[in-house]
């Protein structure tokens, strides 16, 4: 598969430090043209947020996005790819 082939992916983000949300939102905005949808669930009892981001993009774009998110201190990021 060539890196320009678009893939559907779900990015799961656990925000463990709410101070980093501005940096996270800036990165997500940068890739907004590839994002299909986003859902966030604040879990106030544990002082964390759980965010899922659905994306349809070339694999190199998904990797770049998750790499930038993963470099933000206070975020835990994992990606699951569709086989489609």
Automatic annotation (TrEMBL):
Pfam families to which the protein is assigned, alphabetical: TM1266-like (PF21699)
Domain of life from the UniProt record: Bacteria
Name this polypeptide is given: Putative iron-only hydrogenase system regulator
